[in-house]
Structure to design on (240 residues):
C-alpha cells in the first residue's frame, strides 16, 4: 500500500499513530512488541514524535523490545551510528528498559557481529514465530534498504537472518538484516521523503524487477502489511 502526504511531518504523524496501534495490538495478542528501527534521515521526525506527549504515554515501553535493521561498523558514539541517532532522538527520552534494546556491533569484525546478532535474535524469538511486529525501513537514493546495497552479495542471501553489507560509495562495512528475514515481519513501514527519492521510487515501485540494481524491490511481506509512507515530492513520479 502507498500512502502519500503533503509533507514528511504529516507522513510521520500518520506513521507514529500506526506505530502506537501496532505496539498496543501486539502486546494484547502476544504480550510484547518487537520492533526493528532504521537509521538514515527518514525516521527522524517519527522518532521525535514518539518521544513527545501524548504518544509517549500511549506506548507500553516496558513491553517493547527494540532491534535495528542495519548498522554502520563505527563506534557507538560516532555520528553515523544508527543506534546512537535513535537513542538521541527517542530511546533516551522514553521509559524503555535499557535491557530491552539490542544494538548491532560490527566494529571489530562485521562478519562475527552479524553472526552474534543472529544468535541474539534466535534467542529472543526462541518461543515464538520469528517475525517482527514492525520493521521500519528507509530507501536510499540508490535504491538500497537497510544495508542491502546495489550489486552486493547479501542481495542473494536466502538462509541467514543477518549478514554483512557493504557501501561501496563510502567504502564502509555494515551489518544488516537480510531480505528473507525482513519479509517475515507482520508490518513493514518504508519511509521516503523529498524529491531526491522520486526517480528511484518510480523504478522500485513501478519498474521491472531488478533487485540487484534496486534492493528495495526485495522487500515484500510474506504474511503482513507493507506500507510506503511518502511525501508529495517523493511520490511525484508514481501513480497514486
Ligand atoms: O545508510 C542507510 O540508509 C538508509 C536510507 O537512509 P535515508 O537517509 O535515505 O532515509 C537507511 O534506511 C539505513 O538505515 C541507513 O543505514
Amino acid at each position: 500500500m502507498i500512502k502519500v502526504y503533503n509533507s514528511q511531518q504529516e507522513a510521520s504523524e500518520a506513521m507514529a499513530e500506526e506505530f502506537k496501534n501496532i505496539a498496543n495490538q501486539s502486546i494484547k495478542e502476544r504480550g510484547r512488541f518487537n520492533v526493528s528501527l532504521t537509521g538514515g534521515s527518514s525516521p527522524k521526525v517519527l522518532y521525535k514524535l514518539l518521544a513527545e506527549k501524548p504518544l509517549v504515554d500511549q506506548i507500553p515501553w516496558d513491553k517493547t523490545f527494540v532491534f535495528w535493521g542495519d548498522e554502520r561498523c563505527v563506534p557507538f558514539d560516532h555520528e553515523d551510528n544508527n543506534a546512537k541517532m535513535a537513542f538521541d532522538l527517542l530511546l533516551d527520552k522514553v521509559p524503555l528498559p535499557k535491557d530491552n534494546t539490542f544494538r548491532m556491533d560490527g566494529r571489530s569484525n562485521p562478519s562475527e557481529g552479524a553472526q552474534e546478532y543472529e544468535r541474539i535474535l534466535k534467542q529472543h524469538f526462541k518461543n515464538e514465530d520469528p517475525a517482527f511486529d514492525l520493521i521500519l525501513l528507509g530507501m536510499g537514493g540508490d535504491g538500497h534498504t537497510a544495508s542491502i546495497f546495489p550489486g552486493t552479495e547479501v542481495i542473494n542471501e536466502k538462509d541467514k537472518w543477518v549478514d554483512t553489507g557493504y557501501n561501496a560509495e563510502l567504502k564502509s562495512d555494515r551489518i544488516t538484516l537480510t531480505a528473507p528475514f525482513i519479509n517475515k515481519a507482520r508490518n513493514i513501514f518504508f519511509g521516503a521523503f523529498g524529491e531526491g527519492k522520486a526517480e528511484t521510487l518510480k523504478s522500485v515501485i513501478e519498474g521491472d524487477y531488478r533487485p540487484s540494481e534496486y534492493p528495495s524491490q526485495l522487500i515484500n511481506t510474506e504474511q503482513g502489511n507493507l506500507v510506503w509512507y511518502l511525501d508529495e515530492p517523493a511520490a511525484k513520479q508514481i501513480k497514486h
